[in-house]
From TrEMBL:
Alphabetical GO biological process terms: cellular response to oxidative stress; interstrand cross-link repair; nucleotide-excision repair
Gene: Fancc
Descriptive protein name: FANCC protein
Gene Ontology CC annotations of this record: Fanconi anaemia nuclear complex
PANTHER family, sorted: FANCONI ANEMIA GROUP C PROTEIN, FANCONI ANEMIA GROUP C PROTEIN FANCC
Organism in which the protein naturally occurs: Lanius ludovicianus (Loggerhead shrike)
C-alpha cells in the first residue's frame, strides 16, 4: 500500500476511501499505512472541524452527507484513536454534529449514535465486558483496553484542565492565552459526556473559568446540561462550582429554584425538618449568600406566592428558606460576608436589622419589647409616610412575611407574656390584611381585639368547653373575609396550645373548625412551624409538644 505523494487539503472522498480501506487496522500492512498517513489525517480532521464548527449540525450534514460514515469508521480504528490529538479532534467533530434541540426522529437517532461513539472513545465500560476486542496495539503497550481508555480519558482531561488553569493565571499573556472560541468548543465537546466521572474535573475547571471576556464564553447547552445533571443527581459538584454555574447562567438558577419548589409541593410537609433537609440538599440557601442569587430566588418565591394566592404552605416554605439563608449568612467568614443592605437594598434598614435578629439570639424576656419595636417601625412606614402604590406596600409586607417566625411568636406572646397588646395585634393585623383600603385593616384590628379580649378572659379557666369558645369559633365560621378568619384561627390555635386547660378541648375544637371551614391547611402549617421552633430551641414543655404531634397526626388526613 504505497503512500500518496500529495493529498488535497480537504479531499473528503479520499479520506473516506482510506477509512474504508483501513477498516479496524487488523493487518500489519494497514497498521503501517495508518501510521504513515496519521499527520495528514490529523491536518484534514482539524480543517474539517474548523469548517463545520460554526455551521450547525444540519448545514454540516448538507455540506458533507457522508460525514457520519467517515467519523464512525475512524472512531473504530484503534491506531487513529490511540493518538491523543486525533481522538480529541474526532470528538470535537462529533460534537459539531450533535443537535442541542433535535427536531425529528432522524436527529434524535443521530444524537444517540454520537453519544454511543463518544462513550466508546472515552468510557472503559464497554471494553471491560469484551476482552476479545482488545486491539493488538493496546496489548503491545501492556494495557488492557479498560486500563488504556481509562488512562486516555484521564490524561486528556488533565491536559485540558492544566491548559485552562495556566491560562487563567496567565490571562495577560495574550500570545499564550486560549481563545474564547476554543474554550467554547471544549464546553460543547463536554455536553454528551457530562455524566462520565473522569470528565468531572474538566467540568469544574470550565465552570470556574472566566478568561478575559466580558461575555459568557461557555456554551449555553453545556451550562444547561450540567445544571440538569446536577438537579437529577447524576453528577456531584463542589458548592463553589455550583454557585459559579448559577451566577453565570440565570436560566439554570431559575430552573434550580423551580425544581426545589416542585420537590416541596410534591411531598406532604410532615415536618419542617424534612423541608429544611430538601432545601439544604439543593444548595440554594447556601448559594443565597451571594446577594445576586438571593434576590433572584426571593423574586421567584414572591411570584410563586402570588400565583398561589398567598397559601400558608408556600409562605411556610419561604420562611424556612429565609431562616436557612440567615443561618448560612451568620456562619460565613466575616471577611467574605456581604452587608444586609446588599440583600435588601430597597428596604428600611432599621426594620431589616430588627427582622433578621433570630429569636434565639435574644432572651425570651426581651421578645415582647423587640416585637413592639418592629411593630412601631412598621406602622410608621405604612401609616406615617406616603406609600406611592400597592406594589410598595406589597414589598414591605413580603419582607415582614419572610421573617414569619416573629409573627408566630407575636401571637404566642399575646397570650403568654406581659406585652403591649395593641402594638402586637396591629403587627398581626398588618400581616393578615396589609391593605387598609375601605378601612379593611382597621376593621381586622377591631375583630382581633375582640377575639383577644375574649380569649384572655378564658386563659386561666379550669373548666373549659367548646361552648366557651363559641364566640371565637363563630368569628372563624361566620366571616367571609379570609384575613379575619386566618387571624382568628391563629389566635385560637395558640390559645388551645398555651392556655392552662386548652389542650383538653383542642382536638374537638380544631375538628369542628376543620369540618365547617377551609382553615385546615392554615392550622396544619402553624403547628409544624411551632413544632420546628420548639425542636430547635427546647423552650416549651413536653405536654405542648405531645399535643402538637397528636393534632398534626389527625390533620394529615385532612390536608
Amino acid at each position: 500500500m504505497a503512500q500518496d505523494a500529495t493529498v488535497p487539503k480537504l479531499n473528503f472522498a479520499y479520506w473516506l476511501d482510506k477509512a474504508v480501506e483501513w477498516g479496524q487496522a487488523r493487518t500489519l500492512e494497514s497498521q503501517k499505512d495508518v501510521c504513515l498517513h496519521l499527520p495528514q489525517l490529523q491536518e484534514f480532521l482539524h480543517q474539517l472541524y474548523e469548517t463545520i464548527k460554526h455551521s450547525g449540525s444540519t448545514v454540516a450534514i448538507q455540506q458533507f452527507p457522508l460525514i457520519g460514515q467517515l467519523l464512525g469508521r475512524l472512531c473504530w480504528n484503534p491506531f487513529i484513536i490511540g493518538n491523543d490529538e486525533s481522538q480529541k479532534t474526532l470528538m470535537w467533530c462529533l460534537c459539531c454534529l450533535y443537535s442541542s434541540e433535535p427536531q425529528n426522529t432522524v436527529e434524535l437517532k443521530a444524537n444517540s449514535w454520537i453519544r454511543s461513539l463518544l462513550c466508546h472513545l472515552l468510557s472503559s465500560s464497554k471494553w471491560e465486558s469484551n476482552e476479545a476486542e482488545t486491539s493488538p496495539f493496546i496489548s503491545a503497550l501492556g494495557y488492557t483496553s479498560a486500563d488504556y481508555y481509562c488512562h486516555l480519558v484521564k490524561n486528556m482531561v488533565i491536559s485540558l484542565v492544566t491548559e485552562l488553569r495556566e491560562n487563567q493565571f496567565n490571562g495577560l499573556n495574550i500570545q499564550g492565552s486560549i481563545s474564547a472560541s476554543r474554550v467554547n468548543a471544549v464546553s460543547i465537546f463536554c455536553v454528551p459526556l457530562i455524566t462520565l466521572p473522569d470528565v468531572t474535573p474538566l467540568l469544574e475547571t470550565l465552570l470556574l473559568y472566566h478568561g478575559g471576556s466580558s461575555k459568557e464564553i461557555l456554551s449555553s447547552e453545556f451550562l444547561e446540561a450540567v445544571n440538569e445533571a446536577f438537579l437529577k443527581k447524576k453528577i456531584s459538584l463542589p458548592e463553589s462550582v455550583v454557585f459559579s454555574l448559577w451566577l453565570r447562567h440565570l436560566p439554570s438558577l431559575e430552573k434550580a429554584t423551580l425544581h426545589l419548589l416542585d420537590q416541596l409541593f410534591s411531598i406532604q410537609l410532615n415536618s419542617l425538618e424534612e423541608v429544611a433537609c430538601v432545601m439544604k440538599d439543593s444548595l440554594l440557601p447556601q448559594a443565597a449568600n451571594h446577594p445576586a442569587i438571593f434576590r433572584i430566588v426571593n423574586e421567584i418565591f414572591k411570584n410563586a406566592l402570588m400565583e398561589t394566592d398567598g397559601t400558608s404552605g408556600v409562605m411556610t416554605i419561604i420562611q424556612v428558606f429565609t431562616q436557612l439563608f440567615l443561618q448560612a449568612h451568620q456562619n460565613e467568614n466575616k471577611q467574605h460576608k456581604f452587608p444586609l443592605k446588599a440583600y435588601f437594598p430597597y428596604h428600611h434598614q432599621p426594620l431589616v436589622r430588627g427582622l433578621v435578629r433570630r429569636p434565639f439570639e435574644l432572651p425570651t424576656t426581651y421578645w415582647s419589647q423587640h416585637l413592639q419595636h418592629i411593630s412601631n417601625m412598621l406602622r410608621v412606614l405604612v401609616e406615617d409616610t406616603n406609600i406611592s402604590c400597592l406594589t410598595d406596600l406589597f414589598e414591605i409586607w413580603f419582607l415582614v412575611a419572610c421573617f414569619g417566625e416573629w409573627l408566630d411568636i407575636a401571637a404566642e406572646q399575646l397570650l403568654k407574656a406581659a406585652v403591649e397588646p395593641d402594638a402586637v395585634l396591629w403587627l398581626l393585623a398588618f400581616y393578615y390584611c396589609p391593605n387598609n383600603e375601605n378601612q379593611q385593616r382597621t376593621q381586622t384590628m377591631v375583630e382581633a381585639q375582640a377575639v383577644y379580649s375574649h380569649l384572655m378572659m378564658l386563659f386561666s379557666c379550669t373548666d373549659l368547653s367548646l361552648k366557651d369558645l363559641e364566640a371565637a369559633v363563630h368569628r372563624i365560621i361566620g366571616t367571609e373575609q379570609c384575613w379575619n378568619r386566618c387571624l382568628t384561627t391563629h389566635l385560637l390555635t395558640n390559645f388551645l396550645l398555651f392556655s392552662c386547660h386548652g389542650h383538653k378541648i383542642a382536638q374537638e375544637c380544631i375538628d369542628h373548625i376543620a369540618k365547617t371551614t377551609d382553615t385546615s391547611n392554615d392550622v396544619y402549617n402553624l403547628l409544624i412551624r411551632t413544632a420546628y421552633r420548639f425542636n430547635h430551641s427546647g423552650e416549651e414543655n413536653q405536654r405542648t409538644v405531645k399535643l402538637i404531634n397528636e393534632l398534626l397526626q389527625k390533620l394529615r388526613l385532612k390536608v
